[in-house]
Amino acid sequence: MQPLKIAVLISGRGSNLQAIMDSIESSELPAKILCVISDKPDAYGLERARKHGIQAETVDYKEIAKTCGRASQLDTYESILLDTLQRYNPDLVCLAGYMRIIGPKIISAFRGRIINIHPALLPSFPGLHSQKQALDHGVKISGCTVHFVDEGCDTGPIILQKAVPVLEDDTEETLSVRILEQEHRAYPEAIRLIAEGRVRIEGRKTKISKDGK
Ligand code: GRF
Asked: Which of 14, 34, 170, 174 makes a 20 to 30 Å CA pair with 133?
């Protein structure tokens, strides 16, 4: 089987990227990372990628915003990001702590081929600060979700989820750590399902087959 060619988009520390790289290196995940792209030049994930000999690039949102008018900055940024992605021509784009909305140009160029990891059990607590939202709501179970990206905010078809208990004395930090441990298992697992050809999108759901047929 040919390894699945992936691009990873990040904005920060890149611990999910690390989990994906580790799974590939230990041969648990039949994939190859073609490139890691960050919207911020100082994202620690870029260093992690370089340490593993992976092409690491920045499409610097702030710099782009400085050089073009406010109205067109998003459009320009998205076009440059799309060009960069198309240069690598990945089978799958993985958002791993990428803190920007993916715009319509990229969604339509990579429809059904962009996935994201979210630190809550969607459809509960989409958007930012999901762990705090979960604590504030008083749920007893939270977790993480790997899902396809569509035009909405964290609304696309769900591939897999992992649950974690919310404890009485949890803070945003302690709950985030417990969820992150599961994210590091969930993301490589979801990519593996896709690499094995076992994930099919059907409307707003996914169907996961047992054997890749
Ligand atoms: C993770 O909690 C992920 O679910 C969310 O952003 C965080 C990124 O962490 N989307 P890292 O950069 O992968 O360490």
From this structure: 14
